[in-house]
């Protein structure tokens, strides 16, 4: 059964605490927090102050996805704010190894992220040091996009490497996830599903978390 990480990008910001408590009680395991800098991706979202504010109101694992150019500049700040996992894009820095080392040195779980246009080969040298790999299943920057099925083969490739090299990392998918698209990704080896609009745009968000779990039993 897949672990579910609702993305607060699609939550009701005015009632954020209500929405977080709802998905927490509703069976989610992680809370996905998208940091967008207006440079690596066009949009701006929120910063470490949000992570700090959310930390005391939930026991969910805070899964911080940095869509930020040169993320090394902010790793310490997000770690100090309470992030449990910090994800950095390999496309956003010439120093992905150093960025992952910085995350681990802060005692936080390290995640490397790849865009749909980036091959798995780009991150194989750092797989030994990560706790999670995020395979973007849409181009990053916006919620509500369509799942790109061609990304599923990268999940399978990562799962193979994981088995053959005896590595132990979660494989997360993000973008266009629903009860249909999650199935192939799960069968290929995905262990964590981020879902924004599918969960928060629904009349009953908790039923959507359950639907993702039911689809991957
Ligand atoms: O990283 C991102 C967007 O870049 C996401 O986490 C979105 O929040 C996913 O939204 P949906 O596709 O699930 O609506």
From TrEMBL:
Binds 1 divalent metal cation per subunit. This is Ribulose-phosphate 3-epimerase. Catalyzes the reversible epimerization of D-ribulose 5-phosphate to D-xylulose 5-phosphate. It catalyses: D-ribulose 5-phosphate = D-xylulose 5-phosphate. Substrate binds at residues 7, 65, 141-144, 174-176, 196-197. Gene3D superfamilies: Aldolase class I. Signal peptide: none annotated. Pathway: Carbohydrate degradation. A divalent metal cation binds at residues 32, 34, 65, 174. The gene is rpe. Its EC number is 5.1.3.1. Its cofactor is Zn(2+); a divalent metal cation; Fe(2+); Co(2+). It comes from Lentilactobacillus diolivorans DSM 14421. Belongs to the ribulose-phosphate 3-epimerase family. The active site is at 34 (proton acceptor), 174 (proton donor). GO terms for biological process: pentose catabolic process; pentose-phosphate shunt. One of its GO terms (molecular function) is D-ribulose-phosphate 3-epimerase activity. InterPro entries: Aldolase_TIM, Ribul_P_3_epim, Ribul_P_3_epim-like, RibuloseP-bd_barrel. GO terms for cellular component: cytoplasm.
């Amino acid at each position: 059964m897949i672990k579910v990480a609702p993305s607060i990008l699609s939550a009701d910001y005015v009632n954020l605490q209500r929405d977080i408590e709802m998905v927490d009680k509703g069976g989610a395991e992680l809370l996905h927090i998208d940091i967008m800098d207006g440079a690596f991706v066009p949009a701006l979202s929120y910063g470490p102050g949000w992570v700090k504010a959310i930390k005391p109101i939930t026991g969910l694992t805070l899964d911080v996805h940095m869509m930020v150019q040169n993320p090394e500049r902010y790793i310490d700040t997000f770690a100090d704010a309470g992030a449990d996992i910090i994800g950095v894009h390999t496309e956003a820095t010439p120093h992905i190894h150093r960025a992952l080392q910085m995350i681990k040195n802060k005692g936080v779980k390290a995640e490397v992220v790849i865009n749909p246009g980036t091959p798995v080969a780009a991150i194989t040298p750092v797989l030994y040091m990560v706790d999670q790999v995020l395979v973007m299943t849409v181009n990053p920057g916006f919620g509500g996009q369509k799942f790109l099925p061609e990304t599923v083969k990268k999940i399978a490739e990562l799962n193979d490497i994981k088995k053959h090299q005896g590595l132990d990392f979660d494989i997360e998918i993000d973008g266009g996830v629903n009860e249909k698209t999650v199935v192939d990704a799960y069968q290929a080896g995905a262990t964590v599903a981020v879902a924004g609009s599918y969960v928060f745009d629904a009349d009953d968000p908790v039923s959507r978390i359950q639907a993702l779990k039911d689809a991957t039993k």
